[in-house]
Specification:
The complex is a heterotetramer, with 2 copies of chain A (about 375 residues) and 2 copies of chain B (about 290 residues). Chain A is α+β, with helices and mostly antiparallel strands and about 375 residues long. Chain A has 11 helices and 18 strands. Chain A folds into 3 domains: about 70 residues, ATP-grasp fold, A domain (Dna Ligase, domain 1, 2-Layer Sandwich), CATH 3.30.1490.20; about 120 residues, D-amino Acid Aminotransferase, Chain A, domain 1, CATH 3.30.470.20; about 140 residues, Succinyl-CoA synthetase domains (Rossmann fold, 3-Layer(aba) Sandwich), CATH 3.40.50. With about 290 residues, chain B is of the alpha/beta class. Chain B has a 7-stranded mixed β-sheet with strand order 3-4-2-1-5-6-7, with helices on both faces. In chain B, strands 9-8-11-10-12-13-14 form a 7-stranded mixed β-sheet, with helices on both faces. In chain B, helix 3 runs parallel beside helix 4, helix 5 crosses helix 9 and helix 7 packs parallel to helix 8. Classes of the chains: A alpha+beta (about 375), B alpha/beta (about 290). Chains in contact: A-B, A-C, B-C, B-D, C-D.
Chain lengths: ~375, ~290, ~290, ~375
């Protein structure tokens, strides 16, 4: 799941021939001024912070400018803002267009139908979650025949388009469908999609690409995402790692078991701070790496909960003991372990030899780690 | 047949010469499964764990009458492997491979279905019926033949729960790991009827997690069609929205897919809901005890 | 139901506002068919021959419970029209349109089939069951209710033969015109079981033509599954190879698809073979007379 | 059904990136000489008549040249040859390659499976009809997932390819499949497909495109086909018209009825010379046009056999009477008519008024026209 910044999404849109306002990225106030002064971005223009979180408008991250000087001032005001933890480093400057109507349009996956779904609403410019279901049309699209003309007509009808804008929609949907498939997108959202004159223009572009398809998209390699630096390192190592707000680090194998472990900790008053899913591995080095990564997150205590399958208990124990050697004494954390399943005996023995006791039940081990972290259990 | 597999299941392992393929071929055989063929293009004529290897599924089916496939091939080639299995007439495929792009899986799913095929997975531990056959990677040791059916979106959590059932002195009729991806070939609504219809299943355990609405749809199915007792557990109650929790499918997006709505739906459909994984065997044992009294 | 259509068939005419659509809507209604809706995008809200017109098939189905479609839209839009019908839940579509590219038809056929749908045609006169319903363009006047079933790849030749049956004092249970294209939704092997299973059919007339192997496959089916008497005729005995004889599907290519092989196969399968179209009613009458004697 | 000349087929191949020998078209001996002299076509080269019928090699329509002078002489020998009725106007000159092996490969439609089918054989360079079935592999390809990798591997296995040529096959099949679908082809055939060095080269190219898909291929409009001039005129008017070897013209409506009419004539000793399928029409002008077209084919007698459906009998009769007025007396032909079905009475009456009697039975009317043409009936 890689969210693209608006300007990257619009670069993709441009590649597939979708209708966009004239615009350009700026990284300094001076650049913003120059772009508007030399006509690259016509005036009046809108200046938008390129951050991944939504709700920019309300947060002061979108401003308008009528002159190059105004553009510089606005750019200076937005650049460097912290926006939901994300610093603004890029701005998108775009011509301000005479909007007749704002619509909503997206293509995403319907997990239940197991089909792509085209979602349209005549109420654009607001979050789609806030729009009443009766004003939203959901059109499943089957990948075999692809997006059919009758489906495009249906979308046009729901959006209340006729004439030029309806024709524009036809082409736009064709392009968007191609983009959705070829770029392995999880979501392409245009909100608002604006009626301007006799056609349509995509005022915003939200694109989420599926990183599992990265093997056919070498061009994605250098794309920044909204992962934390540690999450990014974990991703490169093939470890599922999510930073949360608490102080207990959880290492488990398997997404379900890891989540269940978090749930149990929370139930006993603990606050999980790291979700680390080892996945299936029988390489002790990967386990060591995972632990060292965990150490970098500076947890108050760590809970290791393993049910051995593909990942054997002795492999995990070996990797863990090695990791503990490598963590400087000052950075060590209390560790509670529970290892069960394949090669359990061997694993428990390896841990014991290193001075770590494996507590066999989930309840007791969870309570122990919450206590170690200073929680209420 | 119990559920989907039994003694007549003849498995071809696609990607048998890889590390995972080889290890799990051995374990499937140890479970008692008839693993009759392996396929790795270019490795035809060799043998792995006593199983003949062929260059194509078509050849494997012609020579060994394989009727089910277990797919271990890497994600970039998984779509092709599944299409090959379907075109060779194989109607049950278990896909262990993870990280298959969902756009590929959409094609795989709908093509397979148009040919009357069924996919378990991808990114799943597979299916096992103790005393009969296993396709996939669930550890053999957690099983004991019995009358509890398990359907789960998880891997290791399932092993833990299945093992807990065994440690309670109970056993399983069959266990299906549906897989943790957003698009899976077999979902709760597809698996529930199999256990409901299975004369060897008395209780159904359903292990869900956050993300999507598969559990809600399962609950709806339970409400209308399942007469057997159901024990349900949902992992991810404490997960924050917008974060992918290990599984590609485990994400609360735009307020949908929370544990709360799932638990509420299951509870309303008459399922017994466990708050902790270790409560599941207790609840199952309680139900079994009551059934024995009747 | 006789074969595919009956009094409960509720037809939506796609392309109803075109000349052909309008003319044949009238004639279908005169035949007694329930034509409940028409569809022409942009013409919703109007009426044709007393039939309400909608902008989409989905709307037409929601409002009128149409359960079959008759497609008259021009070739470039025919694929879309069929997909729309299938997605609206319509499982029987008669496509009258000719000159649909076969690449389009491949998508239409396989998509329809994956949804459990059936296509008659394209480039076909349709289906009619006298006294019940008609979808398509076969002239009403040639019919008389009776017990002869007719399956044909031709149009007017079918009318001639069906009319001949009537003029012999006999009647038809149903008649299906399969269409003259290389790829048709329903072929002889698909249509034969319908008539074999139909309690209202005593004799089956099969009218083939050169090109392809549909007649040979039909013969194979007859040999194994058809117990009712079959009278067969093949048009194009005198056609040269490599020339497309009016129908896109009527071509002898690379030595395949000749009338001789078709006639031999049908004859070997036990069908009575007519040398001239006008022999068919004679042969049918002969068979009916014998059946009456038994 | 439009057969493309080899060079046109190869132009398409080139567009899709298929591997071809270096080559160029020449229309005069001098051009042939120049192309080889200036190196556009490397020597030694092969010079092939661009005609649509097969078996050119045996017919002297393919020659080799080692020098520019030889190229000129060979070109002069081939140009202007009559080849199965077709005059040679274009030559394709191509470099002669060191061929290690000749294979066969085609993509076409399997009507029974209703699927495209990939046909491969290691025995290339001969007509596929003469190859034993055991040496041919037929691989159905479903348009939904498209050509799968395992299908390409299967083709490579049948062709006995490994290493470089196998990789070349992979790319070639991908391109050919794309061409087959995008160009709405009925047949693409490469025979022989040659193993040359470490790769593959398409030595011949046979492409048949489906003219029903012409609405999405404006680029086909100017493509010559193997139709006769009258057949071409008919095609433009939307009349199915085939010239045969006999002397009786047949006009009927509907392909099946027209073929059946031919069959009946032949049975009675007649020799059909024109197959004219009016199709479905209710425009008397179209009927008139069809008759005038028929007159141009100079039949000894014409048989009109109509069963009125969409095409009503009176429409046909009106059109026919109008046509008879327009045909000069000298070119008139004996006409036998049989009109049945919709508006039969009206039609018969119109004909009678013009002095033409409609004979109601097919048998008697057929016998009458055979007699009129001087046949044995």
């Amino acid at each position: 799941m890689v969210k693209l910044a608006e300007w990257r999404g619009k670069d993709l849109f441009r590649k597939y021939g979708l209708p966009l306002p004239k615009g350009q990225v700026a990284r300094t106030p001076e650049e913003a001024e120059a772009l508007t002064r030399n006509g690259t971005v016509p005036l009046p223009c809108v200046i938008k912070a390129q951050v991944l979180s939504g709700g920019r408008g309300k947060g002061g991250a979108v401003k308008f400018a009528n002159t190059p000087d105004e553009a510089r001032v606005a750019a200076a005001a937005i650049l460097g803002l912290e926006f939901k933890g994300e610093k603004v480093r890029e701005l998108l400057l775009e011509e301000k267009l005479p909007i007749a109507k704002e619509l909503y349009l997206s293509l995403t996956l319907d997990r239940s139908l197991r089909l792509p779904i085209l979602i349209v609403s005549p109420q654009g410019g607001v979050e789609i979650e806030s729009v009443d279901d009766s004003a939203i049309d959901k059109i499943p699209v089957h990948p075999f025949p692809g997006l059919a003309s009758y489906e495009k007509r249906r979308a046009g009808q729901t959006l209340g388009l006729t004439g030029g804008p309806a024709k524009s929609l036809d082409r736009l949907l064709e392009s968007l469908w191609t983009l959705f498939q070829r770029e392995d997108a999880e979501l392409v959202e245009i909100n608002p999609l604006a009626v301007v004159g006799d056609g349509l223009v995509a005022l915003d572009a939200k694109v989420i690409i599926e990183d599992d398809a990265g093997f056919r998209h070498p061009e994605w390699d250098d794309i920044q995402d909204d992962r934390t630096p540690l999450e990014e390192v974990a991703r490169e190592k093939g470890i599922a790692f999510v930073q949360l707000d608490g102080n207990i680090g959880v290492i488990a194998n398997g997404a379900g078991l890891t989540m269940a472990t978090l749930d149990v900790l929370k139930e006993f008053g603990g606050e999980p701070g790291v979700f680390l899913d080892l996945g299936g591995t029988d390489d002790p080095k990967k386990v060591t790496e995972a632990f060292l990564l965990m150490a970098q997150a500076k947890p108050k205590a760590v809970f290791l909960n393993i049910f051995g399958g593909v990942t054997r208990c002795d492999t995990v124990a070996t990797g863990l003991v090695e990791a503990m050697k490598q963590v400087p004494t000052a950075e060590r954390f209390p560790l509670v372990a529970r290892i069960r399943g394949n090669n359990e005996k061997e694993g428990v023995e390896i841990l014991r030899a290193a001075g770590i006791t494996s507590i066999p039940t989930l309840r007791e081990s969870a309570q122990a780690v919450v206590a170690a972290a200073g929680g209420k259990a | 047949m119990t559920v989907l597999v039994d003694e007549r299941t003849r498995v071809v392992v696609q990607g048998i010469t890889g590390h995972q393929g080889t290890v799990h071929t051995r374990q499937m055989k140890q479970f008692g499964t008839q693993v009759v063929a392996g396929v790795t293009p270019g490795k035809g004529g060799t043998e792995v764990e006593g199983v003949p290897v062929f260059d194509s599924v078509r050849e494997a089916v012609q020579r060994t009458q394989a009727n089910a496939s277990c797919i271990f091939v890497p994600a970039p080639y998984a779509k092709d492997a599944l299409l090959e299995a379907v075109d060779a007439g194989i109607l049950l495929s278990v896909i262990v491979t993870e990280h298959i792009p969902f756009h590929d899986m959409l094609v795989m799913y709908h093509y397979s279905r148009s040919k009357g095929g069924r996919i378990i997975g991808p990114n799943c531990p597979g299916i096992a019926a103790p005393g009969k056959a296993k396709i996939g990677i669930i550890p053999n040791v957690v099983f004991h033949p019995g009358r509890v059916g398990v359907i789960s979106r998880s891997g290791t959590l399932t092993y833990e729960i299945v093992n807990g059932i065994k440690e309670h002195g109970l056993g399983q009729s069959a266990c299906i790991g549906l897989g943790g991806d957003p698009v899976v070939g077999t979902s709760f609504v597809d698996a529930l009827p199999l256990f409901q219809a299975d004369p060897e299943t008395d209780v159904i355990v359903m292990v869900g997690e956050i993300g999507g609405t598969a559990e809600e749809e399962g609950a709806e199915y339970i409400r209308h069609h399942v007469t057997k007792p159901v024990v349900a557990y949902i992992a991810g109650r404490s997960a924050p929205p917008g974060k992918r929790m290990g599984h590609a499918g485990a994400i609360i997006s735009r307020g949908r897919g929370t544990a709360e709505t799932k638990l509420a739906a299951l509870s309303a459909a008459g399922a017994r809901v466990a708050r902790f994984p270790y409560e599941i065997p207790d609840l199952v044992a309680e139900i079994v005890a009551k059934q024995a009294h009747r």
